[in-house]
Automatic annotation (TrEMBL):
Keywords: Disulfide bond, Electron transport, Endoplasmic reticulum, Membrane, Redox-active center, Signal, Transmembrane, Transmembrane helix, Transport. The lineage of its organism: Eukaryota, Viridiplantae, Chlorophyta, core chlorophytes, Trebouxiophyceae. It comes from Apatococcus lobatus. One of its GO terms (molecular function) is disulfide oxidoreductase activity. This is Thioredoxin domain-containing protein. GO terms for cellular component: endoplasmic reticulum membrane. Residues 1-23 form the signal peptide. It is a single-pass membrane protein. Residues 11-128 form the Thioredoxin domain.
Length: 216
């Protein structure tokens, strides 16, 4: 019985090589935590995908080859929209997969064919013929990066609350008063600052009397 033996060997070889290919991908996975840092440098081609989307599954081998072929020139990334909902919200996407080019705070959406050749051409120079999205739409623009930080604040607040309550055993009432104290203190500081500003410059409220020009 030689054939089954070879069969098993062949199967395990194939299996092993597919495992290597899986581990060895040049596609860079981006998340909420590392998106901003990674966007700071380089040219990126990023795909936003969902594991259940069949067009994304079809694109996957192409995306891997693209990442390998563009290595050293353009960084090829992907964002799992299901796992990174708050990051995905910052892209106004119409559907999966969503492909865009990002560079120096500018974002350009890709609307062409999803073949290896077309994608590579877009990543290398085709993007120059595409108009960038306005800065407030681009999650990699300075405004977009600040917005991203703001969007994670509620989540951080919830984490902080859970930590203080469960780890530090601080009762909810004390926490509530503590959190209320923050806006109240900020409001009082604003009033003090405005007070100081206007009492230093009393003339700011006085409009000078209009000067009449002498007619000749
Ligand atoms: C970003 O973070 C995720 C999750 O921690 C990690 O799997 C991924 O490799 C990171 N990406 C980069 C480019 O560092």
């Amino acid at each position: 019985m030689k054939i089954p033996g070879y069969g098993v060997l062949l199967f395990s070889l194939l299996h092993a090589s597919s495992q290597v290919a899986l581990a060895d991908t040049d596609v860079i996975e981006l998340t909420e935590e590392n998106f901003s840092d990674k966007m700071a440098e380089g040219d990126w081609l990023v795909e936003i995908y969902a594991p259940w989307c069949s067009h994304c599954q079809q694109l996957e081998p192409t995306w891997r080859r693209l990442a390998t072929e563009l290595k050293g020139k353009v960084l090829v990334g992907k964002i799992n929209g299901d796992q990174q909902p708050s990051l995905m919200q910052r892209f106004a996407i119409q559907g999966y997969p969503h492909i865009c080019h990002m560079r120096e705070g500018q974002m350009r959406d890709y609307a062409g064919d999803r073949s290896l050749e077309d994608l590579r051409h877009f990543a290398e120079k085709g993007w120059r013929q595409t108009r960038p999205q306005p800065f407030y739409r681009a999650p990699n623009s300075p405004a977009g990066l600040v917005l991203g930080k703001l969007l994670t604040l509620p989540h951080k607040g919830v984490q902080l609350h859970q930590y203080l309550r469960n780890v530090k055993k601080i009762p909810d009432l004390v926490l509530l008063l503590g959190f209320l104290a923050i806006p109240v203190t900020m409001g009082m500081c604003c009033i003090c600052l405005l007070d100081a500003w206007y009492s230093r410059r009393p003339s700011a409220w006085v409009t000078p009397a209009p000067q009449h020009a002498h007619a000749h």
